[in-house]
Write a structure and sequence with these properties.
The chain folds into four domains: about 140 residues, Immunoglobulin-like (Sandwich), CATH 2.60.40; about 130 residues, Immunoglobulin-like; about 325 residues, Neuraminidase, CATH 2.120.10; about 55 residues, no CATH class. The protein is about 5% helix and about 40% strand. It has three helices and 48 strands. Strands 1, 5, 9, 12, 13, 15, 17, 18, 20 and 21 form a ten-stranded mixed β-sheet that branches. It has a five-stranded antiparallel β-sheet with strand order 2-3-4-7-8, with no helix packed on it. Strands 31, 32, 33, 34 and 35 form a five-stranded antiparallel β-sheet that branches. A hairpin with a 7-residue loop joins β29 and β30.
Length: about 675
Amino acid sequence: MTTPFRGALLVLTSLAVATFAACNSADGGVDVVDPGTDGGGDASLDGGGFDPDALGDKKIVKIDVTPADQKLTVKNGDTSAASISYVATATLSDGSTLPLPSCTWTIDRIDLGSFTGATFKASGGAGGTGKVTCAAVGLTASTSVSIELRDEVDSGSGLDDASKKDLLAATTKDSTVTKLLYPYDGTVFPRGLPSPELMWNGGAAPDVYAITLEVPGMTFTSFVKPGATARATIPKDSWNKLLDTATPKDPLKVTVRRLAGGAGGTAFVSTTQQWTIAAANLKGSIYYWRINGGKVVRIKPGASAPEDFLKLSGGRTCVACHSVSHDGSALVATYDGAPRPAGVFTPTTGAEKAAVPDTLFTAVYPDGSTMVATHEGTAPTLHNAAGGSLEPSGLGAFGASVSHAAFSPDGKWIAYANRKDGNWADFNQSDLMIAPFDIGSKKFGAPKVLRASGGRTLTYPSFSPDSQYLVYMDSTQSTRPGKGNLHFMKADGTADIALDTLNKAGLATEDLSLNFEPTFGPVLAGGYYWVVFVSTRQYGNRLNKTYDAFRDVCGKDGWDKTPCRNKQLWVAAIDASPTAGKDPSHAAFWLPGQDIADQNMRGYWALDPCKNLGEGCDAGFECCDGTCKADSAGAPKKCVKPPPGKCKDTGDKCETSKDCCDEPLGIECVGGVCASKRPA
């Protein structure tokens, strides 16, 4: 599993019916009530040496749980010995004690394990600390239980136990292998993705490495002899345990140690890193142009490969420039490059449902009902979902040089680039613009300059899920071999800041300023915004050709040493509650599931089409109507109708923050979904 059950409560009772009942006495104690009185009770009170008739005026004043504050260790998933049998004891008003014959046992983190009677058994799927509680006769007693997971794998290291111990104890700094090429230090990873592949340079084929990943509650160690590849992977099962154990407050620590020459060699500490694990999976699908296939494909975060889903009409084989509605109900893509007719597709089926006359780029309204088409030499035009023209629009005021437009998720704004030179495909200067839009009247208001070009190419704006912020590309050229970085600003044009961590963290000098075409993810996840973007940066030691080293195959005359590495999609977390004047971005990660032999660009991130009542779901916002609930504990969730007037759970759709049940705990209505803007 890849979603922890933080805050969930498991309730398992050692007897099917409560064994005894109580009422509060005037002096704060708890009277033991005879089963035959109005206080309720159960005949089993007569057994186990706990006879209420024999207690007289004595009262139960407290209960205790033993053993207290226990720790369990699970090695490589073996839970056979990872259990604790608890005992609950009642203290009476005269100071004497009696064992409680029954208790309702609970643990506040069901991912850690479960109860059978009074015995707790660790699940082996997650580590950490939970609260064990016994509830009986109107009183409770609690203690802690800590689960420590220890996974170890050996991939042909050839080391004996003593050599492994010595390697893990190494403290000498390595001067040969000094850093990981990938992942980057400080990366924020979501849950639900495959483990990243660790890659480095240096070392020799006989070298053996110990790779340790640690979070409170789990330690994973891998002994590996990678040879010349200088790469290592984390087994899926262990990675999922790390994800389910980690919290955003406790970074995952990564340590790489090297035994030069293998057994008998000198041990070094090569490098250390810290990663943060966000407490959520990424949602929606990313639609991108697979250039070398001439196709728009899509990939769900966590999938092993993209899906080729579009059904092209009229014998056409190539689609390129595309955009998708925020709700994932409509996709528009131009045929055979641009300017050309564009097809309007239904993502659920991949079928074409309409066409738009010759167009360059399009912006699709959040619900897929309306779209703006841009053209070369004329003002943009407004169309309905069937491709028909809609008037009046007010788009004439935008002029004839509009590119890369995007609607805000709330449908109230459109942002775009206003070209100052060049043509629809290649330009070097553009202003970043915004204009209001009213879907009722189908009219646009007067455009406003958010940031003037100043000789730069400011383009590819994208709105955050709550429509409060923009991310955009600041580059030397709109396409081709330009140098570009991503910027972040408020949607009113203030607080503009370069996303330096996203743009630079972990990169070699030759990889700087190779960040293009950003798009925000459609919803918050784990208290972060997420951005997908295109980059020709090196991907560890898998995509690492440079112009200087490969002049015979890289670059073209006049392209200023263009890297010949393939374009790939990268993702980065952005703080959803940014601090003024501070870069809110984090180091990026390569989007798993891509083929590194492909040229991929223009990732467009949208929600998946909503689910009907009765269909499976993970969160309420995925449902067309209602909320996402399980019928019973352990059952899969599905879209259901909530009771009338019920508040909205976290993850449900909302209109204002007051709709959210957990508003007092900091949950807000963010982009129409009850969510937290801070990492949990």
